[in-house]
Structures
1.
Amino acid sequence: MIDFQNVIDTIHHNLKDEVFRGLVANYIPELADIDAQNLGIHLRLLDGQTFATGDWNKKFSIQSVSKVLTLAMALPMYPENLWQRVDVEPSGNPFNHLSLLELENGIPRNPLINAGALVIADILVSLLKNPKEDFLNYVRNVVDDPTIAFNLKVAESERLTGYNNYAAANLLKAYGNLENDVDDVLDFYFHQCAIEMTCEQLSKAFIMFANHGACCLKTNQLSPSQAKRINAIMLTCGFYDEAGEFAFEVGLPGKSGVGGGIVALLPNHFTIAVWSPGLNMKGNSLLGMQALEQFTTMTKLSIF
Ligand SMILES: NC(=O)CC[C@H](N)C(=O)O
């Protein structure tokens, strides 16, 4: 039996005084002041046991991690046509890259780059009565925690500075791959990214992917087949142009966000959420990746 508490405490100890911690995302001004010294880990086994260390109980902006949750909400509601509007190939490009979108006639490479997430946002804006509230309630239900909320300042900060996302949404609209107004889709997208969670809440939110889709939702659960496919997309596309590196170093499906969070999972075994706000050049948490590399190396628990 692995002493998980000892493993994550050792990783925290190894990394907590690291000098080279990457750079906090400052292209979203409201995120620029987050203290790069934060480092939290929360591990949740499928049998319900949990292990935590460091700043596991502080809220942070989940940013692109939300893209997996919008996909998980949309897929059971729109299973037939979704994959006609967004592909499932890794892009090998940064999360906000646009030239492939033009080359490929407005069909984003996958749902985890920004353009693909905007198509999923558009689907939810079309399907939901009160899109932002309904999605927030979905997340609250998945985690079974009604306190989860948007950070409205972060959403507003992105609205004021998100020129790349405006460009992506306009391009999608020009190619006929957005049904709704560009501003409505972006408003939804900026809010989904501005949800705040702790490592503990995030490890809970992703249990469904480790558990063949099953979680505490009463309706709209993922089927085992849908959960399998989302895991495949996380593995191949969850870290943008560093997806290969993450598979090589860590060997788990996962997703990062520019708030410095990473959540990863081993089907049938566990989910693990790590938060360290400093990012590497590819926009993924620098120490978060190192922590997870140490975790799968020390425990020998990975999909490979
Ligand atoms: N990789 C990320 O977390 C990017 C999300 C961010 N909201 C953006 O659209 O730029």
2.
Amino acid sequence: MKHIIKFTANRVWRTYQGGKLLDTIEKKSNPEDSSFPEDWIGSTVEARNVGREHISEGLAMVPTDEGQLVAFRDLLKQNQGYFLGHEGDKARTLEDIPLVKYLDSATRLHFQAHPTREFAQQRLGLPRGKTEAYVILETREEVSEPYIYAGFQRPPSREQLKEWIETQDISSIEACFDRIAVKPGDVFLIPGGRPHALGEGILMLEIMEPSDLAVRFEFERCGYVIPEPARFMNQGIETALDVFDFSPVPPEQVDAEFRCHPKVLNTDAQGNTLEELIGAQDTSCFTIRRASVSGIFSREEEAFFFGVVTQGSGTLRIGDEVVELKQWERFFCPAGVREFEYESTSGMSILECYPGNT
Ligand SMILES: O=P(O)(O)OC[C@H]1O[C@@H](O)[C@@H](O)[C@@H](O)[C@@H]1O
């Protein structure tokens, strides 16, 4: 059996439009925006799409040695110790696997807030919330000032927000936020509870806790009306309001609250560099690193990770297994692989998404 598992595209239906860049990456003949604006990479999570329950969406499928397709989740279960490894003396489980997505927005997404892990466990009886991180990869040329909304800069009271949600007074809701300008290379961490909306024209790698839980408090975007059960996770509005973190994030605190600054972990004379984009001091939910390869980059890692080639191309070598890596390709490296080597003569950048430390 090979060590490295590569993934093919796994597009998922969502409530908003996008995906033209993902079509282009997949070399489709007529790239266009559609209701499939996301690609879930190695996902062990099923999408919750109200009205589409009859369609299994989200789970990544991979070929076995016999050429059959199996859910990646089921493959992991066959040898969990090798694939997921341990943290200290605790075996890692499927719940420790971050959900990683390409997300390509054509329109601003509706306003939403995700539960924290604590909320999911205590109030919903589910193991994981949805703290999420964004690594901005590209923005669309026709969008001159790409942005996201995150955290209330001017928080409403709970009662006020309730009324605006009930009457769908979106201009009042929008007035609680300032646009946060984004550009390729930017990294953000949006903890559960923080209201947010992604602006149009952004291609990002999104890394999150493994769940698809959202309070969607804007019910209509671009003609699509979110069905009632999909608005508040099938709960009442009071439970939905309990999800929110109303504490203010005034404009001067936005960066300190949400923006993450890459830290160089090591660098060598050839120009190989390993940076930490999100680490244990930011969240216990996942870790993100970026390997910039120039020549041969020998690595040692104890944890499993998803690798995503965001720039350039090269190879990944484990013993005598050599895997070609091209831009936009994505793969899983099991915990059982301790030593590996990247190589690129023309330069290659890989985002590595690891479990957190819980
Ligand atoms: O699930 P819908 O409502 O289409 O939301 C779409 C997307 O919103 C973003 O803010 C993220 O939370 C994504 O992970 C999610 O898939």
